[in-house]
Automatic annotation (TrEMBL):
<feature type="domain" description="N-acetyltransferase">
    <location>
        <begin position="9"/>
        <end position="199"/>
    </location>
</feature>
<dbReference type="Pfam" id="PF00583">
    <property type="entry name" value="Acetyltransf_1"/>
</dbReference>
<protein>
    <submittedName>
        <fullName>GNAT family N-acetyltransferase</fullName>
    </submittedName>
</protein>
<keyword id="KW-0808">Transferase</keyword>
<dbReference type="InterPro" id="IPR016181">
    <property type="entry name" value="Acyl_CoA_acyltransferase"/>
</dbReference>
<dbReference type="GO" id="GO:0016747">
    <property type="term" value="F:acyltransferase activity, transferring groups other than amino-acyl groups"/>
</dbReference>
<dbReference type="InterPro" id="IPR000182">
    <property type="entry name" value="GNAT_dom"/>
</dbReference>
Amino acid sequence: MAADVAPVVRVRPATPDRWDDLRVLLAPRGEGSDACWCLAWRLPSGEFGRMPGPDREDRLRAMVDGGPPPGVLAYVDDEPAGWCNVGPRAAMERLVRSTTIHAVDDLPVWSVVCFVVRTGYRRQGLAEELLHGAVEFAGSYGAPALEGYPVDTGGARLSTALAYVGTTGMFERAGFRRVAGTDATSAGRPRWVMRRDLAGGAGG
């Protein structure tokens, strides 16, 4: 393939047949077993803290198998390269109980809570591709709106570890608007509730 040919990026739901691809992105490196498995926002803090790594993996696997998928995967030339954790806000136990990110209203919104981009694929716009995929995914399940809680960088460049929630600029480019401030911060920078209204779909 010629060097100037752009890679093909596809975003797909994390269905059971894609479990191995999701595992490539979320499994711990080396012998450690304390990986988050992207459950920190989906479980009450106490339960999450007491749960050993292998049990976290099993819990996420059960969510994938039970559906609806707990997020979307990005593929670059068919290689798993990124992940976005998205689902109904009501299913994000830590978010529901949060004292720093409050619900704006009673609308049954869906929420984007984190992005994971594999080493070697970062700073290539993949998180933004995932966000667009999350919008389509939430709409296909009839979500009335999709929210995110990104950080306002103020023009500063944040590390990947601190920008896992996304940035306000990225969300604005994807059609989201700021609807409320929060008491949450990342790297000392404020985070916002940002929302994009969706037409909804026929369901998944």
